[in-house]
Specification:
This is Pyridine nucleotide-disulphide oxidoreductase dimerisation region. It holds the Pfam family Pyr_redox_dim. GO terms for molecular function: flavin adenine dinucleotide binding; NAD(P)H dehydrogenase (quinone) activity. The protein has 493 residues and is an alpha/beta fold. It folds into three domains: 169 residues, FAD/NAD(P)-binding domain (3-Layer(bba) Sandwich), CATH 3.50.50; 137 residues, 3-Layer(bba) Sandwich (FAD/NAD(P)-binding domain); 106 residues, Enolase-like, domain 1, CATH 3.30.390.30. The chain is 28% helix and 26% strand. The protein is built from 15 helices and 20 strands. A five-stranded mixed beta barrel has the order 1-2-3-4-5. Strands 16-17-20-19-18 form a five-stranded antiparallel β-sheet, sandwiched between helices. A four-stranded parallel β-sheet has the order 9-8-7-13. A hairpin with a 6-residue loop joins strand 10 and strand 11. Helix 1 runs parallel beside helix 9 and helix 3 packs across helix 7.
């Protein structure tokens, strides 16, 4: 049962698959260890099902905004059909369609839980039947185990059986009332998805002063306005301090959830020892389900990191060649969410390709080993709400905090003819952030319908360090919304 191979990959999500396939293409022997489904979180419980559930409501909302089409929309979203489509998209939670890709590459799939076991390249695997197998990698072990939803230590929350991203994206029932904790990408997407799928009451609770707090400030304000116009209650600067689930008896069915909420006051953190009259005012929100979307925890708690001198339960810090910092011999790599650089599927796949190139000895055109250039400067990200939020690189605030002398300009996304011919009034903002010394883009943000298809042009401009004078010659087609690029350059001057 023991085996010696060139490369062992722990985790068969998008990052793990890609590093395994690329190494195998280079002629290396590869084993992938996976305890769940090949395809990982994104395929079954994240990106694919969540965007599938968002799509019906997005299409109906767009049609209702277009004269000539609005009158044809006579009913709500068919939630049952949306859930059935979701099941088809995730292969009915079977990876039978994804495994052949690995097999065709010559990669061996081992079903079980892998754990680092001390000496360089050694991995102990507990197979699904409980037996044990010891593997040894001569070149590299790549950790691609991802993350899991964080459940904060709020009194009563764990006992209330909260939803996380997996429960929500896999649901077959639309709760009449839903409370969402967290105003990041997962929270806002699923809040809007369930409102449009038929939830009568959706309340989103976020401790920060705006939604999507890491994006440009106008993003959160526009999203909040859209949510409130759609009947979603948005409570910013608030936190849940207690959760209670009603039950009909010790073994009875679950009843409503009561969430106690109080304002967040950074200057007065509500010390329980303070007199009651000095504590922030509290109230309660009652719902049928509570969804926790407050962040992600690295899946490294039982990975054996302590056997190689690393701290278990934490993200694995890597260098610009995706090698684990603090582990001698350059044999341990980490890619995807588990390295904590950018918790996005596309960035994990990018990191995986780089790690494979380092492992196989590939060089760039200058003859130097390849290294990660995108994570520090050009991470593209899309939040698939309505309005959609698409951004890449630095926000204006982040650029200034990094010491870059920048100038930022903004224009309405709907200020071009391409927006008008869509037949709907396009709200939203397009913004670029320019490094004045180099006259190149370091950031861009677009809000409005379908802006996800605009962000890649900005990504290319940032990664390629294209001077503004050169960007003038990138002519957008007419009439497209991409013509907003001309408006931005004209305003910049």
């Amino acid at each position: 049962m023991d085996a010696d191979v060139d490369v062992i990959v722990l985790g068969a999500g998008p990052a793990g698959e890609n590093v395994a396939g690329r190494c195998a293409d280079a002629g290396l022997s590869v084993i992938v260890v996976e305890r769940e489904l090949v395809g990982g979180e994104c395929s079954y419980w994240g990106c694919i099902p969540s965007k599938t559930l968002l799509r019906p409501g997005e299409v109906l909302a767009a049609a209702r905004r277009v004269p000539g089409a609005a009158s044809a929309v006579t009913g709500p979203v068919d939630a049952a059909a949306a859930f059935a489509r979701r099941d088809w998209m995730v292969g009915d939670y079977s990876d039978s369609s994804q495994v052949p890709w690995l097999v065709d590459k010559g990669v061996e799939l081992v079903r079980g839980t892998g754990r680092l076991a001390g000496p360089a390249g050694r991995v102990a695997v507990t197979l699904l039947d409980g037996t044990r197998r010891v593997l040894t990698a001569s070149r590299a072990v790549v950790v691609a185990t991802g993350t899991r939803a964080t459940v904060p230590p709020i009194p009563g929350l764990a006992d209330a059986e909260p939803w996380d991203n997996r429960t929500a994206t896999g649901a077959w029932k639309v709760p009449h009332r839903l409370v969402v904790l967290g105003g990041g990408a997962v929270g806002v997407e699923l809040a809007q998805a369930f409102r449009r799928l038929g939830s009568a009451e959706v309340t989103l609770i976020e401790g920060s002063p705006r939604l999507l707090v890491r994006e440009e400030e106008f993003v959160g304000e526009q999203l909040r306005a859209a949510f409130e116009a759609a009947g979603i209650t948005v409570r910013l600067g608030s936190r849940a301090v207690e959760v209670r689930r009603a039950r009909t008896g010790p073994d009875g069915p679950a009843g409503p959830v009561t969430v106690t909420v109080e304002p967040v006051d950074p200057a007065d953190p509500a010390d329980p020892g303070e007199p009651v009259e000095r504590r922030p005012r509290r109230d309660a929100v009652v719902a049928d389900e509570i969804l926790v979307a407050v962040g992600r925890t690295p899946a490294t708690g039982d990975l054996g990191l302590e056997t190689v001198g690393l701290q278990p339960g934490r993200f694995i810090e890597v260098d610009d060649r995706l090698r684990a910092v603090g582990v001698a011999g350059d044999w341990l790599y980490a890619v995807g969410d588990v390295c904590g650089r950018a918790l996005l599927t596309h960035m994990g796949k990018y990191q995986a390709r780089l790690a494979a190139d380092v492992i196989t000895g590939r060089r760039d055109l200058a003859g130097a080993p390849v290294r990660d250039l995108a994570d520090p400067a050009a991470v593209p990200r899309v939040t698939f709400t309505d309005p959609q939020v698409s951004a890449v690189g630095l926000t204006e605030r982040a650029a200034r905090e990094a010491g870059i002398a920048v100038r930022a300009v903004s224009v309405p996304t709907g200020s071009v003819a391409g927006a008008s011919v869509r037949g709907e009034e396009i709200t939203g903002t397009s913004k670029i952030v320019v490094d004045e010394a180099r006259r190149v883009l370091v950031g861009a943000t677009f809000t409005g319908p379908d802006t996800q298809e605009m962000v890649h042009a900005a990504t290319i401009a940032i990664v390629g360090e294209v001077p503004l004078e050169r960007l003038w010659h990138a002519v957008p087609s007419f009439p497209t919304v991409s013509e907003v690029w001309l408006r931005l350059l004209e305003v910049y001057g």
